[in-house]
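Troubleshooting entry. Yesterday's outputs looked truncated, so today I'm pasting the complete records for two proteins to confirm everything comes through intact. If either block looks cut off, that's the bug. Protein one:
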Amino acid sequence: MVDLSALGITNLGYVFRNMSTPGLYEEAIRRREGAVAHLGPLVVRTGQYTGRSADDKFIVCEPSSEDKIWWGKHNKPFDPEHFELLKIRLQAYLQGRDVFVQDCYAGADPEYRLSLRVITETAWHSMFARDMFLREFDPEVLDRFEPDFVVIHCPQFHAIPEVDHTRSEAFILLNFAQRLVIIGGTSYAGEIKKSVFTVMNYLLPQRGVLGMHSSANEGPGGDVAIFFGLSGTGKTTLSAEPDRALIGDDEHGWSDRGVFNFEGGCYAKVIRLSAQAEPEIYETTRRFGTILENVSMDHDTRRLDLDDSSLTENTRAAYPITHLPNIVRSGMGGQPDNVIMLTCDAFGVLPP
C-alpha cells in the first residue's frame, strides 16, 4: 500500500501499486478497457481524443517558475487559484475509486534522472506508463520510493470550462511548484508521455542539459547519430536501423556526458505499417505487452488491420524498448558524430 494523502487523495477503493504487465492485462480485461489481439497485444480505444490536445495544455503561473518560462502560444498560463479548485474537485472524484500507481523514472542517465509516480484510474494507462518509462526492479528501492514529480491521469473526470476556466472538458495542467501534473477528460495516453517531456524540458536546461525531441542510435564503433524532425517525419523508422543499436526513438537529453534516452519504451505510429518496410517495429504489434491505440481489429479472429484509418490516422503502438532486437540497453550514448534534420513534411523546409 502507498500513502497518497499528501496529494489530497484519500478514501480510495483499492490501490494497485506497481502491478506487473500480466496483472495489468487481467485488470484491463476485467474492467472492459480493451481486448487482446492475435499473439498478445492489448487493443484499446481512446474515444473522442485520438491525438494530443495541445490547446488544452496549460502551465500554472506561480513565482518559482514564472520567470523561467517562455509564455506565449505554446506555454499558456493558468491561474493558481483555479488550479487548486480543479484539483479539489479531482480529489473528490477519486474518493471510493480504485487507482493504479506506477513508480518509475524519466532519464536513463542516473545523474539527471527524474523519479516519477504515475497515478491512473485505468489499468491500461498504468501499463502505458510501465511500457514508456524506465522501471525500477529492486523491490526494496520501490518500497522507499519518493517521487520527484507526480502525474495524475483521470480520463473520465471532465472539467467544466465555465467553472474551471479551462478551454474544454479536457485539461493538461502542469504545476512546477507542486511538482504535479493533472490530466483529465482525455484518454489519449500520449498526454502522459508529453507532459513528462515538458517537465524534463523545464528542469534539465537549468542543469546545462539540452532536452531534444529526437531519436538516436549508435553504430558498431560507438558513433552516435541524432535524428531531429516533426512528428511523422520518420524519426522512429530511421533510427530503427538493423545495423545500428537504438538508444531511443523520441525524447533525449544531451549533456556534457553524451546523449541519454528519457524513456524506456517507444510510442510509434503504426498506420499502414508493413512487415517489409519496417520489420522490427511491425513485430512489436504482435507481442504481449504492446498497447495498440485505435488500431482496427477483427473481433472474431482477433487479427489486426494496420491499414484501417477509420478511427484515426494517428494509430499508435506503445511498447517497451526491449521488444526491439538491437538496442543500447543502458539508454546512454556518447557525444553525437552526426545530427540529421528530417524534413519529410508538406513543405520540405529546414527549421530555422
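Protein two, checking that the full record survives here as well:
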Amino acid sequence: MKLTLLGGGGFRVPLMFRTLLADQSDRRVTELRLWDTDAGRLAVIRSILQAMAQGHPTAPKVEVSQNLDEAVAGTDFVFSAIRVGGTEGRATEETIAHCCEVLGQETTGFGGLNYALRGIPTAIRIAETIARLAPEAHLINFTNPAGIITEVSSRILGDRVIGICDSPVGLARRVLDTLEGAGLVAAGTASRVIAGDDRVRLDYAGLNHLGWLQRLVVDGDDVLPLLLERPDLIESFEEGRLFGAEWLRQLGSVPNEYLHYYYFARETRKADDAVEATRGVFLAAQQLDFYTRAAALPDPEAYALWEATRLRREETYMASNRLAAGGVERDAADLASGGYDRVALAVMKAIAFDETTDLIVNLRNGDRLPELPRDAVIEAPCRIGATGPVPLPISPLPEHAVGLVQSVKYAERTIIRAALEGSLDLAVAAFAHHPLIDGVGVARELLERARVEFPELGYLS
C-alpha cells in the first residue's frame, strides 16, 4: 500500500511513521512518499525517519517527491497535514488577535478563519491534483482548520476526502479510562475506541473542535450517566477539570476541549495575557530552534532531540485554557501524543482491505443534523469500509448547541465563499458573524491587519 504524506517536513510526521512501524501485518504501508515546500525541514524529518527505521526490516520505503504531481501520481492514499505560512503564520495571527482583544487560537475564531483564507487555495490545488492523477485515491485530511478544509475539498472529491481529528478519540478514551479506574466498565474497554470494536459506540456530534459526547455505549448500555453522577470522577480527567463537574452535569454531556474557548472565553483571554508567549509564538521559536539544531546532528541524535522537543510541545498544549481553569495539568497518557496517526491508519486499512471500523470523522452532513445544509461537513461517527464512509445514526444536537453550531458553520461556509470568490466583503462578514469576534468594526480591523502581514491574502479584493 502506497501512502503520500503532504507536509512531509512537519514536526509530527515521525508520529505517523512510528504507527506505520508498529504495523507488521501483510497489509501494511510499504511505501511512504513525502512532499513539502521546505526542503530543509524535509531533510531533517527524513533523517529522523531513517533513525527510527533502524532494526525494522519491514519499515516502509521512504521516498522524497520533488513536486506535488510526483507525490500524488498513482498513490493509494494521500494524508494532508500542511501549514500554509508555517508556524510563524499562526504566531502572527495570535499577535493580531491580541492587538484586537479577541481570541487567537489557530482553529477557532479569527485564527481559524484567517488560517482558512490562507489555506483554501492550496487545498483546492491538492484536491484537483488528486482528482487528476490519483482518481481512486482517498484524501485523509488533517490540515487545519480541518472542518473547513475538508468541506472545500469535498466539493471536488466528494466523500473520498475524510477529515480526521484526534480530539474526539482522546475525549472518549479519557472518559473510559476514568470509568475503568472506578470499576464501572471492564478493564480494556478504552482500548477498543480505535480498534474497530463496535461494542463501544460513541454518540458524538457537532463540528470539528466543536462537538459533544452525548452517549457512550458499551455492550449496549450507555455508561456516560455513570460518570456524570459522580463529581469526583468528572474532575479526575482533563475535560472534567477543564470545564468543572457542575458545568458538565448542567450540559448532560462532555464537550470537546476546544469548547472551552466558547464557554470560558473571557477567562482564557485573561490567561493568554498572563502567559509569557502564546502557544503559537512559543511553537514558532521552538520549531526554529529544533530544525536548526537537528540539521547539524547525526540521525540518532536528531531523533533524540525530536523526542525531547515533542514532549515539551505536548506539555504546553492548550496551556492558557488549563491556566484559566486553575492550573490543570495534562494527563500523563496524553503526553505520549499521537492519536490522529492511529485514526488515519484505521481509515486507510478499513477502505483498502474492508476492515470495517467505526470512527468519528469529518464528512458531509447528509440528513444527520437537519439544522445544517446537507453538504456541510460535520464531525460525527461513521462506519468505514471498502466502499468508504457511511454515516451512523446520532442523537439530535441539544438545544443549547444548535445555535452555536449554526453560527460557527455559517461563518465557515462564508469564509469558503470569500476564498472562492476572492471577496473582502465576504471575509469581513465571516469574521463578524463568528461568536468569538464581537462586531463588524473589529472584524474589519482584523482583516486589515491580516492583509498587511500575509501576502497570501493578496487574492482578496
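Both blocks look complete. Sanity check on protein two: The chain has a mean pLDDT of 92.
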